[in-house]
Amino acid sequence: MRDALLLALLPRPTPDLPDPAALDAAAFWPRFDAAAPLALRVAVTLAAGLVVGVAPWLLHGRAWGRLTPDEHDGVLQRLAAWPGVADLLDVAKLVACFRYFDDDGVQAALRGPSR
User: Fold this and answer.
1) Which of 30, 54, 70, 113 is the most exposed place for a label (fewest CB within 10 A)?
2) Quick check: is 51 in a domain?
3) How far apart are CA 63 and CA 57, in angstroms?
4) What is the spatial distance between Cα 9 and Cα 95, in angstroms, rounded to a whole number?
5) What is the C-alpha to C-alpha distance for residues 3 and 29, in angstroms, rounded to an integer?
6) Is 17 part of a structural domain of the chain?
7) Long-range contacts (CB closer than 8 Å, 24 or more residues apart) made by 10-16
8) Cβ contacts of 42 within 8 Å, gap of 6 or more
9) What is the largest CA-CA distance in the chain?
10) Rounded to whole angstroms, how far apart are CA atoms 9 and 44?
11) Which of these, 29, 19, 75, lies nearest to 51 by C-alpha position?
């Protein structure tokens, strides 16, 4: 669920950067779980459960995986207006950036060719 949320929070890929959906996050999550404070881990898990688990059923009557990317955006926009949820989404956005920029391929694309 955490990956689904973080992928929905990241902008759609551009040709010069790797697609977030194609990156392997397997190494990221164990490091995150070991290093992140409990409150951060709980916030991301809570946000993922709400956004990916509960909200699609409440707002669309079907599972997250059956929604289109535009419907994912709609869920995120509607939830961002709920008191307290905007803060959870802001935290999740930061973790989404950590996850994306943790990838060696992303780092190489951003740094450009070595000299």
Assistant:
1) 113
2) yes
3) 6
4) 10
5) 9
6) no
7) 10/96, 10/97, 10/100, 12/69, 16/109
8) none
9) 53
10) 12
11) 75
Residue with tokens 């419907």: 71
pLDDT of residue 37: 97
Task: Tell me, yes or no, whether 106 lies in a domain.
Answer: yes
Q: Locate 4 and state its tokens.
A: 């689904």
- 39-65 mean pLDDT: 96
Nearest to 52 by CA among 13, 25, 44: 44
| Token pair of 44 as six digits | 């991301």
Is 38 among the domain residues? Answer: yes
Please give the residue range of the domain that contains residue 72. Answer: 2-11+24-111
- In the chain, the percentage of residues whose pLDDT exceeds 70 is 98
| Total tally of structural domains belonging to the chain | 1
